Amino acid sequence: MSTNSTEHVVIEMTDIIGDHNNKRSSSGNHNTEPTQRKNNPHFVAFTNSAAKSREERDVEFDEDMLRRAIADTGKWAYGTISVEAWVLNEQTGKLVMPHRAFWFDPVIINAPHAGIDYHALLRLVDENRQDFCAPEDLAPGIGLAGALFMELSTLSLLDSVLPHSKPQRVVWREVVPITEDPDQPFNLRLKLAAQAGIGLAAGVRFHFRGTQGLVVYMARGTTDINKLKSETNEQYLLSATDVIGSIVCLRNPRRDCLAERRQAREATRRRLRNKMLAVIRIGGPILREMLKREYDEGIVPVLYEDTPSSNISSSMDSRRSAYSLASFQKKTLSIKKRIIMAARKWKGANNDPPPPFSNVEALWTFAGCFLTILMLLYFSDFINEQNSQYSLVLGPFGALVTLQYSLTSAPASQPRNVILGQAISISIALCMTYTRLEANIRRSLGTALCVSLMARLGVTHPPAGAAALIFTGGGYTWVHMGIMLAGNVLAIISAAGINNFNVKRQYPTSWGFGYWIKYVCPRKGNVILSFKVDKYVELEEALSAAISAVCVFPVSSCA
What we know:
The chain is of the alpha+beta class.
């Protein structure tokens, strides 16, 4: 038994004896010092301090342990000036920052550097200010932590499908483009972070025993990016994230364990108090008579060696039925929680919609769309003049120019997603035309395969989904695919030329083709490492299962 529990038992014993002597003093001249001591305000203050809320002390201990881990991480990481920890709430589906799970370099707070808005910095770190910007719950994709969380989800899928990719990488993103992204809802804390000199940010996810979240590392924009991406610094950040994630995961089990131990101590203390009261008030002979009567009535458990086996089997059957009932109730409760969570998400995340374009930006978008579509129409007419059987399928290009001139920095607008997404979708769509599936099923299945495969490979491109739906309808050949890819190349060249004349726009933000060369075909010296056949066993099995599913799919009546 701990010291605190011992103090409580001593205090209770003092109270018991004091109450007993007080009652006796009412009928005689006995010493009332214990009662006077109990009514003493200093003694009451001592008792209250000893009985301070244990839950508050546990919360303070957990917060202090998490704060020290985050501070030590930021102290030794290269170039890191701020660290945040976020936890995913499974009930609401939002990212929540635990209390005090935030650290900012005190050197920069006490001695601001050039290029830092000191007022914005204090609004982020000083909780005593009236205009302090407290961290709010973020839906995935909202704010800095939400945007990094969504990107890390895509990277984890890509790492699982690429054979030579690293298990987890620290990807640094520029904060200013995220802030100025028109597709990003307004977030005050993200804007203040950019004004406070935070130019680079990286997120690392953790997942321990059902608790998942991420740790956000932030650095100044002038920090050497090569040193941030060094192997030593990357391994340190990954290991530190594991430590922080384990501390976050440890909180609830530790509190449950402490609560269970306290309940056991409280039950022991209560039984001891009741027995002492019985001994003092009733006396020994009466207590012995009571225990004897309880024993005779069978209240005290007695073990019999001649227990029939039928009773044992019936007891085991009852336990099995109780276990099955508990398991069914647990599954039912899990489904109920999922339904409630889905219903809550229908309400939305209560975030403001993205701001509209200015008149100048809208005019620039109009000019870009007009010139690009006009060029593609002339290109289609030229192809049709050469051979009347072929022309450019113009439907997906309406969505393409919308991405290139309205969501310029979006990942779906970049050349890698445009070329690879179209190539994958049209190839699958043309292959589906060789099957004997019914038309509606063929178009639905082909489009679903294209969209899911693009998401799996990290090259999601909405116009490619539209192209898949069109090409699965039939009537197109592989020549049309070449014409479509040529049209997309022309659209990329046009978008790069028009957008880059605007000071506020940058297209493309990344070409991305080197990403595949680096992680799909890693080099050792000047020789490309050959792939081993055994690493494609899982891919072959997946393709075989897909082909089998297509073969057994119901065909049309005319087949």
